[in-house]
Design goal:
This protein has a single domain, classed as P-loop containing nucleotide triphosphate hydrolases (Rossmann fold). The mean pLDDT is about 95. The relative contact order is 0.20. By secondary structure, the protein is an alpha/beta fold. It is built from nine helices and five strands. Strands 2-3-1-4-5 form a five-stranded parallel beta sheet, sandwiched between helices. Bound molecules: adenosine monophosphate (AMP).
């Protein structure tokens, strides 16, 4: 049973570390970024609505992502837990998540905050080269993170759920640090 959030700016390794946690704990990774990219690829109505915000590095509307998460967490593969990657990203999303999990009596157990310096992040994302990884969009995504998502660090700290892990160095070492933070 593992119900956790990986919190961190873009490029801090949430996706990479989620994959390792999936292998370790056997619970699915739930990434709103992946779900949104799939919706765009499928040319669904929701994908069309989300695309311009994604291209600009802005947040997609809370309604859209909360709806997606609600549906995803209703699927049976999340019964033993989940690793949330890239959600929540705003206070509204965090509140909605708490409500949703309270309804089913499956509250969050931990929030792992992956910490990496901005310049390291920009370097990593430029090297990754996804369509929304231009320098300008990256800088905007970082600003959006600072403004809208970083306040959640405090929010989860107050709930006693937060553990901060330095996300720099060897991928396996970071994984070990995360495991220690979850123990
Ligand atoms: P990611 O793969 O997590 O970097 O997400 C890619 C893009 O999808 C972000 O830059 C946002 O435009 C959008 N996105 C992903 N997750 C969320 C979320 N929880 N809230 C709002 N927008 C999101």
């Amino acid at each position: 049973m593992l119900r956790i959030v990986l919190l961190g700016a873009p490029g801090t390794g949430k996706g990479t570390q989620s994959e390792k946690l999936v292998a370790e704990y056997g619970v699915p990774q739930v990434s709103t970024g992946d779900l949104l990219r799939q919706a765009v690829a499928d040319r669904s109505e929701l994908g069309l609505q989300a695309k311009s915000a994604m291209d600009a590095g802005e947040l997609v509307s809370d309604d859209i992502v909360i709806g997606m998460i609600r549906e995803r967490l209703e699927q049976s593969d999340t019964a033993n837990g989940f690793i949330l990657d890239g959600f929540p990203r705003s206070q509204t999303q965090a509140g909605a998540l708490d409500e949703l999990l309270a309804e089913v009596e499956r509250p969050l157990q931990r929030v792992v905050h992956l910490q990496v310096d901005d310049e390291e992040i920009v370097g990593r994302l430029m090297a990754r080269g996804r369509a929304d990884d231009t320098e300008q969009t990256i800088r905007n995504r970082l600003q959006v993170f600072r403004r809208q998502t970083e306040p959640l660090v405090e929010y989860y700290e107050q709930q006693g759920l937060l553990r901060t892990v330095v996300g720099v160095g060897d991928i396996d070492d970071i994984h070990e640090r995360i495991k220690a933070a979850l123990a």
